Amino acid sequence: MNTTNSVLVFFTLSLLFSSSLGAVQDFCVGDLKGPQSPAGYSCKTKVTVDDFVYHGLGVKGNTTNIIKAAVTPAFDAQFPGVNGLGISMARADLAPGGVIPFHTHPGGSEILIVLEGTLCAGFVSSSANQVFFKTLNKGDVMVFPQGLLHFQLNSGKGEALFIVGFNSPNPGLQITDFALFKNDLPTELVAATTFLDVAQIKKLKGVLGGTG
């Protein structure tokens, strides 16, 4: 058997093997009492229909905070039924002027649908830092590719509400402002790596709870 045929046979058998493994069980409801790994939670042994239902997205979040926004996740840690399925959701409430600052989801792409209000939303590509942003109204949908910096801003006069879906049970979250200023990284080091003024950095650290 030549090398090309060997490679084809190997990949064919690998696909068949992986498909057969995927058919062994229908789901893996997360055992939230156990440890979490990059692959998710281990499987819960006793499963009920309630494991596949989540009521949290029907409740409005508290927007009385510095960003005037609230995000209610339905990730594997809150909704164990999505564990291992490669999906999750979240609800976002924004008061007038509210914003979800520039952030990334390293573990998944995001799709958004506006249910109430008006948003300005966008993302920045990793090639040439090209910016894609748009005003979104009720019923509009926008997608944000995995790992790219993006934001959502309530640009209307009333409250805004949107639902997002992810192709991961736990897409992760890192908000750029909090990563830079809600920590104990020395101010001088932040200044050297961001080109920001020291006084402004100290002010932002004070507002967001950072030290250093």
TrEMBL record:
Disulfide bonds join 28-43. GO terms for molecular function: manganese ion binding. It is found in: Secreted, Extracellular space, Apoplast. CDD domains: cupin_OxOx. Residues 55-202 form the Cupin type-1 domain. Keywords: Apoplast, Disulfide bond, Glycoprotein, Manganese, Metal-binding, Receptor, Secreted, Signal. The keyword Cell division does not apply. Oxalate binds at residues 105, 110. The keyword Ribosomal protein does not apply. It comes from the Eukaryota. It holds the Pfam family Cupin_1. Mn(2+) binds at residues 103, 105, 110, 150. GO terms for cellular component: apoplast. Residues 1-22 form the signal peptide. Belongs to the germin family. PANTHER family: GERMIN-LIKE PROTEIN SUBFAMILY 3 MEMBER 3. This is Germin-like protein. It comes from Cannabis sativa. The lineage of its organism: Eukaryota, Viridiplantae, Streptophyta, Embryophyta, Tracheophyta.
